[in-house]
Design goal:
The chain is about 30% helix and about 25% strand. It is built from seven helices and twelve strands.
Length: about 260
């Protein structure tokens, strides 16, 4: 894991979040890109060069933001981009060969009942970039136990497990598996390939209407430092992702980081 992306919003948690990202990047010897994306809509005939003003102010904000935390020798690069959020994030990630994007749950929302705000929710829901969602105010610590929750362990995409493997190896973490049998279960869903099998210490089997409910039932028994799930068109976050906003009451494991891998198939 060599390149990590951190989009910055205007939340009160932004400084704490960036410090976590720096500490996490330092553990891997990774480069950190701290970015802000803006979009400007102006009326025809507007004389002021709005883009230049916003770009300059955004760059100044990012540089002062980085200066407010301890970078601990990590290479931190600030960049501003104009464009639509999801499209721009995807283009940036491809151009910079990003391995992981670190998100704070609520970049703009101030509502206490919200777990993922619209901005973070869009990035997690609508891109295929591996994402680490870090709770507000969470202080960096080595990851000792990881819980991977899946309803199907079939893997067809190459490299999809790379972020999980990197984290496991870096922290020498124990990885436990929760396989949830849902009404849509197919024969062979629980057959682990050699790469996945090699990293798992213990496997728990559950039967629930959804993977999400299976996690809620077994989460406390595992007490992980990191929850790992995957994006699916109708998968773990199906219940949650009807809207971009995700509420805390609908997602109980909001006190630890959540690693969201791109779809396995």
């Amino acid at each position: 894991m060599k390149t990590i992306l951190v989009p910055v919003g205007s939340s009160k948690n932004a400084q704490s979040h960036l410090q976590y990202a720096v500490d996490f990047a330092k553990a891997f010897g990774a480069r950190l890109y701290v970015v802000q994306i803006y979009n400007v809509y102006t009326k025809a005939g507007t004389m002021i060069k709005v883009d230049d003003i916003i770009e300059r102010e955004s760059k100044e904000f990012l540089e002062s933001h980085v200066a407010s935390i301890n970078t601990k020798g990590v290479e931190v690069i600030t960049k501003t981009f104009k464009g639509k959020l999801v499209d721009t994030i995807e283009k940036i990630s491809k151009a910079l060969d990003v391995d992981l994007i670190i998100l704070e749950p609520r970049t703009n929302s101030i509502k206490e009942e919200v777990y993922l705000g619209k901005t973070s929710g869009k990035i997690v829901k609508r891109t295929q970039i591996p994402a680490l969602i870090v709770p507000e105010g969470y202080v960096y610590k080595p990851i000792v136990k990881i819980l991977v929750a899946l309803k199907s362990a079939i893997i067809r995409k190459q490299g999809v497990l790379n972020p999980l493997t990197a984290i496991k190896n870096q922290f020498k973490a124990v990885v436990n598996m929760l396989l949830v049998k849902t009404p849509h279960h197919n024969e062979g869903d629980f057959e682990l390939n050699d790469n996945l099998k090699a990293m798992i210490t213990n496997t728990t089997y559950s039967e629930s209407p959804t993977t999400f409910q299976g996690v809620l039932e077994h989460y406390k028994n595992h007490n992980p430092d990191l929850l790992c799930v995957v994006r699916r068109h109708r998968g773990f976050f199906k219940k949650l992702w009807e809207d971009d906003v995700i509420l805390k009451k609908d997602f109980h494991s909001s006190k630890i980081p959540v690693l969201v891998l791109s779809g396995l198939k």
